[in-house]
Every structure is written in C-alpha cells, then in structure tokens.
C-alpha cells in the first residue's frame, strides 16, 4: 500500500491465478518479475514459492499486496461451509422462493435454479419486525435472542447468516443478535455489514454466501498473518478494486471473490489514464479463464448485482465478465462442433505440448501447432513446447473431421475468439457502448497471442499490450490504491427531500470507510472520498448511477440525474425521482509502478532473432520473423507477419498489422 513500505525496502505484488501465480517486486535494485505454477491445494506455499522466484525472502519485503482466487474457487467448486440462517419470522423461505424465475427459461429438464444454500432444517425465524423506514414494529426480546442462540447450539453449523427484515434501515436488532451469536460461534455474517440495501432475497443470499466462505477464508488469513513477520505489511486485493488489511476483510471475505481479476482491471485503468485512452477494454487471458472489463474515462466499471457460482451477490465490485477460455482450456468435438472449456488442463499436467503428461488438446496446443510459440525457447526459463505432442493431441479431432491438424488449430482459435468476443460484447454493446472506438488492452499469458485476431473479429482497430503483460495483474496489486467502498439504501424522494438525512448518511458511511482504511495504515489526511447516488424516476425498476460532489444540493442532483438518464436512455423528464442508494468510495493514492522506461536505441528494426513458419489462415505457413521485445527501438514500426517475444508472453502480428513500442515499454498495435 502507498504508505506501508517498511524497512525491508521491497514492495511485492502477487496474483494467484488458476494456473500460474504472477509476482512483481519493486525495490532498491529496480524491478523483478516471475511466474510460477499455482498450487491450489496450498496457496500459502504458492505465495512463498513466488517470493523465492524473485530472489526475495520475508525480511527483505516491506509491503506485500496479494490477489487470490481462493474465494472464487470455493464458489465455483461449491466447497462451502454448512450455514444456518436466522431471519425475521415469516420470511424463512426467502432463499427457497428466490425470484420465482428460472436460470434458463427454456431448459425444462434442468432445475429452475440452484438449490438454496441453507436447508430448511438450518433456518430459524425470530420474532421481531422493522418497517422500511427503520421504525420498530415489534421489538426483539432477550428471550428471542436466547432461542436463536439455543438453535445454533443445537444445530451446530460452521457459520451463521443473520438477515432481518429492513435491517439496512435500522441495524439495531441485527447488531444485538449478532453480538450474542458471536459468543458461541466464531463465524457470524450480518446483512447490514455485508449488503446494507433493500431487496431481501439478494441481501440474504449475499449474507449467506459470505457466511459460507468465512471459515476457510478466515483460516487462510490467519495462516497468512502467522507466516508474515511484523516487519512486512500485508494487504489483500478486493473485488471493488482496492486493497485492505486482511483483518478488515476477515469478517467480509466475499469481498475477495474477484480479487485477482479486479487487479488486472485496475492496472488497465491506470494505463488508460496515463495514455489518455477514453475507452479501454481489459482483456486478461490466462491459463484457465479470460476476464474482460470496460474501463471508461480511466475508471473500471463498478457493478452491484452479480452472480458468482450461480448465486446472486449484491456488493460493489469491478464489473468483470469471465469465460472458461484460457490457454489451458480443453478442446472437444461434440455434436455441434468444436467446444472450448470450461475445464482446463491447469498447470499440472498442463497442455499436451508441455510434455508433462497432458494428452487432451488445449488452446495452447493449437497455438503451438500454428507456430506462434517457439519450441527452441524456454518460457520463463522453465517450460518448453513440443509441436509433435501438440499435433498428437489434435490429430483425433482432425481425423474425425477429415481435416488437416493445422486447419483444425485455426478453427480452435476461431471458436475461442468467438467465446471471448461474446464476453466483450456483454460489457460494451449490451450496455450501450460502441466497442469499435475502444482500445483492447491485452495481457495475461495468452492474451497478446489472441488480441489482434480477436480485435479484427469484433471491429476494434487499436490494441495495447502493456509492459510486463504476462504479470500485469500483479502490477495492478501494487498500483491499486488503498480503497474501501460501501453502498446503502436510503430512499429519499425529490418531493420530500431531507437534506439533513442525506448528510447524516454521508457522514456515517465516510466515517466507517475512513476508519477501515486507517486500520490498514493509511494516514487520515491522505483519504479521499468519491460519491455516487443511484437514482430512478418514481415507479422505475432500475436506477442509474449519478456521480455527485460532497455538497451537492437537490437542484444539482436533479440536473445531474437528468443528464445521465438522457445519455443512458435517450430521454429525461421533470417527473419526481427517488434517490434509492448512496455509494461512497474512500481511497488514498496508490503507487506509480509503471513509470517511464526507455527502450533500445536506434532508428531501425534489429535483425530478427529467428524466422519460423506460422499459419495465419487457409493459405498455409508463412515465414515469420521473431523479435525480442526488449530489443525493439522506441517508435520503430514492426510490420506483420511477425512475432514479438519476452520471457513469458508472445505477441502475434498477423499480416497487415503494425506495432510500435513507446517509452513506457507498451506495444501499440494497429490491426
């Protein structure tokens, strides 16, 4: 974090992905970066292995910022704790009724939705009642609290979720009940702390999901803190795009659900701001998945309604779309043709071309067969690829289709790009953004290989491959600001506007967020606040996000709301409106890691390291020069066909594309 580099001298960012772990270290001797295989069974061992990979140890590290897929994996794999739910009597079925809709309207052979996270025998209705204004209708008695505690003792869950009706408006009953439950159980999740908003189902589901990941996440945090010396300040990257101390996130581990992918989005936002890119698309293709996110005006888009592992989550988090198409994603031939993922070969055994025991074809094997990866190089000094093993893995599919293996490999890339194109359209076209004017920011181990062909497919003309693209998310961990965010339902009508209440709500949220950042070591004077109001016309279902200043009055709020509504929907009226929710972010400046770097000198392109055949289309193999990224002079164009390589990533330039390197080391590609 910005103010936490201690005597060790090195600041380290680590992003633990599904296949590889990326590490970046900035310190007295410059910058170091490496990539190591992820160890899913023991993430702490993987963390220490990554530190060793950059020749550091704990005493030399002053600050470590850590992104993790621990919570994401728990949700995807459904490895969740046994949870009890305590809710207002009469609302015990809220998780079972859900939204009374089907996940897939036309698949009648499947259950309409996932089963409730909490079974009926672990659900308890407690006698109490608040109205939507937070006024007590029926008080919570000590006898009822005692009954709830007795229920928890008898059923012995691993964690408890408490979601009382309208607790977002007045948390007094929940807070009393939570205090009593914490006397008998370590893991208690309270809805007014997790998601202080209206919409009972989403709030309760988020609270239960937070409880379900608490035991394992808290155990990992405890092990992490026990392993780190006091001389090292450690922070965790959270889903809203900032960093916080582990102790702050121990009671709200659901905030870590998009920890790793969010770091890449924040790094993209940082680069877009520095380069003046108005609309950027973060494209992070790793070994297991591809994550995409819209970055507008230097800010990654925030969403509050998401589904993770098929379950709703209502919390502020970076709006990332994830698809199961990474370099290690398995390729199969089904009745409808080629399919990609979502399962992956991972790092063990890895793609067939790695020669580590894998036999099933993957996207990486298709890239190897097309000649994009050089079999004479050791990726990261550790991994070599074998085109013969890649061909052997793809031959069964080629035989069934009656096509050459190289043609099948091109088809694999086309299908993979189509999957990723759909994800990019979901974060742009489906939200009213014309992606044709955007810049595709490609990173991750496999992103730069696919970026140009993907950009052509969706109509994007400019691709940016940032410096250290393979470990870019780890850079995001370091560059991200200390940040905490909170969103709360307030329901203020324009016709009966209560300015004093809005000020009170603002002050309360700011105080809570500032206190959390100060517990993370941030100086009070460094904290800045950004505010958004979620506003809708009376009778509308969906609110729009309206950025406002801290002293905005009703007239200013109304004018800003109408401007946003006009821009979003094409019209605006003078009808009454309602401020549904207030969202505030508290942050402090982050580190400036990707500062200006100087490339090789010269005005001419150096001679290619080698020339190898690559296949770009049905015309067959083309002699393709290969260049080392660090040897490229600044602003000297590289024309395709060409391949640009560094230790861990490969940039593929098909015929017709041109590339130049800037002073920061970024590659700009005109497709």
Automatic annotation (TrEMBL):
It comes from the Bacteria. One of its GO terms (cellular component) is cytosol. InterPro entries: ATPase_NBD, Hydant_A_N, Hydantoinase_A, Oxoprolinase-like. Coiled coil: none annotated. One of its GO terms (molecular function) is 5-oxoprolinase (ATP-hydrolyzing) activity. Residues 12-184 form the Hydantoinase/oxoprolinase N-terminal domain. This is Hydantoinase/oxoprolinase family protein. It comes from Phreatobacter stygius. The lineage of its organism: Bacteria, Pseudomonadati, Pseudomonadota, Alphaproteobacteria, Hyphomicrobiales.
């Amino acid at each position: 974090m910005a103010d936490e580099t201690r005597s060790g001298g090195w600041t380290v960012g680590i992003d633990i992905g599904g296949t590889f772990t990326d590490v970046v270290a900035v310190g007295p001797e410059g910058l170091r970066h490496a990539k190591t295989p992820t160890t899913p069974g023991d993430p702490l061992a993987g963390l220490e292995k990554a530190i060793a990979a950059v020749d550091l140890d704990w005493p030399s590290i002053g600050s470590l910022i850590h992104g993790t897929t621990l919570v994401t994996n728990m949700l995807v794999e459904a490895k969740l704790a046994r949870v009890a739910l305590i809710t207002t009597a009469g609302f015990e079925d809220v998780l079972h009724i859900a939204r009374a809709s089907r996940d897939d309207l036309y698949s009648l052979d499947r259950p309409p939705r996932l089963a409730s996270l909490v079974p009926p025998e672990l659900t308890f209705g407690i006698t109490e009642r608040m109205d939507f204004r937070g006024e007590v209708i029926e008080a919570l008695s000590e006898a009822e609290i005692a009954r709830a505690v007795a229920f928890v003792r008898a059923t012995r869950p691993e964690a408890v979720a408490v979601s009382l009706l309208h607790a977002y408006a007045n948390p007094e009953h929940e807070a009393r009940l939570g205090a009593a439950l914490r006397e008998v159980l370590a893991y208690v999740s309270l809805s007014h702390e997790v998601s202080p908003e209206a919409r009972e189902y989403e709030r309760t589901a988020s609270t239960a999901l937070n409880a379900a990941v608490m035991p394992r996440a808290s155990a990992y945090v405890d092990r992490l803190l026990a392993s780190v010396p006091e001389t090292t300040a450690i922070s965790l990257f959270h889903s809203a795009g900032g960093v916080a101390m582990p102790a702050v996130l121990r009671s709200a581990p659901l905030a870590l659900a998009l920890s790793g992918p969010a770091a890449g989005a924040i790094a993209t936002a940082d680069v877009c701001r520095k380069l003046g890119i108005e609309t950027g698309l973060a494209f992070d293709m790793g070994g297991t998945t591809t994550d995409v996110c819209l970055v507008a005006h230097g800010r990654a888009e925030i969403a509050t309604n998401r589904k993770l592992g098929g379950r709703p989550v209502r919390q502020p988090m970076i709006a990332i779309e994830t698809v199961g198409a990474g370099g290690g994603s398995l390729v199969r031939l089904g009745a409808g043709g080629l399919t990609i993922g979502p399962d992956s070969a991972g790092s063990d055994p890895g793609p067939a071309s790695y020669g580590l025991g894998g036999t099933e074809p993957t996207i990486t094997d298709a890239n190897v067969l097309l000649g994009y990866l050089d079999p004479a190089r050791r990726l990261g000094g550790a991994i070599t690829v074998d085109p013969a093993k890649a061909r052997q893995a793809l031959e069964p599919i080629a035989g069934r289709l009656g096509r050459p293996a190289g043609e099948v490999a091109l088809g694999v890339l086309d299908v993979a790009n189509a999957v990723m194109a759909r994800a990019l359209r979901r974060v742009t076209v489906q939200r009213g953004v014309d992606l044709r004017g955007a810049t595709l920011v490609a990173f991750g181990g496999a992103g730069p290989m696919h970026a140009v062909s993907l950009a052509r497919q969706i109509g994007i003309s400019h691709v940016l491959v940032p410096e250290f693209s393979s470990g870019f998310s780890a850079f995001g961990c370091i560059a991200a600001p200390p940040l905490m965010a909170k969103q709360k339902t307030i329901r203020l009508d324009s016709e009966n506007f209560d300015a004093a209440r809005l000020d009170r709500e603002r002050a309360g949220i700011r105080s809570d967020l500032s206190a959390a950042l100060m517990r993370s070591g941030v100086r009070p004077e460094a904290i800045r606040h950004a505010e958004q109001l979620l506003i809708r016309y009376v009778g509308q279902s969906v609110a729009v996000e309206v950025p406002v200043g801290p002293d905005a009055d009703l007239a200013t709020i109304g004018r800003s709301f109408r401007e946003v509504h006009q821009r979003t929907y094409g019209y605006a009226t003078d009808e009454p409106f309602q401020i549904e929710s207030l969202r505030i972010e508290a942050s402090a400046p982050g580190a400036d890691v990707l500062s200006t770097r100087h490339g090789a000198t010269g005005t001419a392109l150096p001679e290619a390291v080698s020339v190898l055949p690559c296949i770009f289309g049905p015309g067959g193999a083309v002699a393709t020069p290969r260049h080392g990224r660090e040897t490229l002079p600044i602003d000297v164009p590289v024309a395709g066909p060409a391949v640009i390589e560094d230790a861990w990533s490969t940039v593929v330039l098909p015929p017709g594309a041109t590339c130049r390197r800037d002073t920061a080391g970024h590659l700009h590609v005109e497709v």
